[in-house]
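Entry 12.
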Amino acid sequence: MEWRHIEAAREYLASESGAAGDLVARDWGGRLPLVLAYPNTYAVGMSSLAVHALYGWLNDRPGVVCERAFWSLEKRPSTEDPVLTIESQRPVADAAVVAFSISFEMDYFNVVDMLRRAGIPVAAAERDETHPLIVMGGPAVSANPLPMAALADAIIIGEVEPILEELVGALGGIWDQERDETLQAMSRIPGVYVPSLHQDQDVHRQWLGDLDAFPVASTIVAPRAVFGDMHLIEISRGCARACRFCLAGCLYLPRRERSLESVLEQARQGLRQRAGHGAKIGLVASAVSDYIRIDDLVVALRAMGAEISVSSLRVRPLSEVLVQALAESGARSLTLAPEAGSERLRRMIRKGVTQDDILAAAGMAERYRFESLKLYFMWGLPQESDDDIVAIADLAAQVREVYTRQIVVNLTPFVPKAHTPFQHEAMATVPELDRRLRLLRDRLGRSRIQLRAEPVAGARIQALLARGDRRVSDALVAVERLSLRRFERELVRQGVDPQELLAARDSDGPLPWGFIKP
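Predicted 3D structure (tokens):
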């Protein structure tokens, strides 16, 4: 480890303010040292409310000291770069527990990389009493923990709040008992999957009944984060729309909202915390515009002097009070997600919006003079035809008639996810996705509508990770130098046909993640 690595961590720490300033000097002595690890850059990780919330909750417990670590601070790390905590610049391997918060399947590669650079055996079976326990949680592993089963000592399925006290209690016993005893204690906690002990029993996803009991908002002012210019507040969890492709709508059921009073109190605290750092509040939810008292919330925040940003909007309902507040807060673009171009396909995926809804929202964007309108679509959806692809271009052209500024069409390949109504569906092949993308490019032609498409190769790997079984986990462990191509080759070497994982599945047949129950 070189001095420059320590200096870099200290520089990032010095850029922060808020709760971090009260916690950096905490002594590890006599406490459970836990590293909260995010397998992506600092900028991405510090925009995750899970990181903020867990950091605050864990450090509030007198027997715990929690520090943060990230896959990298800025640029892609080399294989020799150590993984250090931000607070004390210690190697993460010195901790008793390393807890990974994993939002996206593609970050599995970074988990492997972090463990290797930290000097911690990647395979759980190869770790002993000298190594920290590796605990994982987050949306990706909650939906399907099997691709991480060979790496994790334990995986939290669902929301951690209902079992947080039990979990910390079980981990706190690590000093007084054997590693296996700690894992046995964790396996008895509802919602905790211990791969080495799991014997075909069901694991029930955990969810919090009263969101107000656990406020979730930014705890650290981190200017170098992606959303470092705002105080983030979760206003609701889950979605009642039941879109057939959407993981969030299935994984976080039932939909729950925080009370208006709770959100406003968090906003007041955030504005005080950010004094001198701007007065922007970022509202976070699966669909911010679905919040039942959104107009009241917006009016109250504006009365506090706050500017407003949102994580997502639905085409319907779309509050004009909210849209106006976004414009007045300096937002330069408005983002809408029709998901499909044709009425037929939108009905099939249960999107619940019509062409008239979309054009009305575009007209609102024109009225409030947003510089850019972003339209998000998927392609490769089940039952999609060439006519549905052409319909994307036709819909964008109709939007052009009511919105005169920059239009950007963003395309994401459909990836079937565990626990969604589309979990049995096949993923379209790469050649077919490429052909349909060319069709859309040709159709848009010289329309002055920008087209941005996510790489198909990456989406294919994401699907392998999202719908994989234990063999995928074994392949991640086996690849010495991870890359998309090497990973897929390793699957084949171990006798796994990638196309088998991407193909349609029998709607009545067993699924690898079937032991995860609501």
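Annotation: The longest strand covers residues 32-41. The mean pLDDT is 94.
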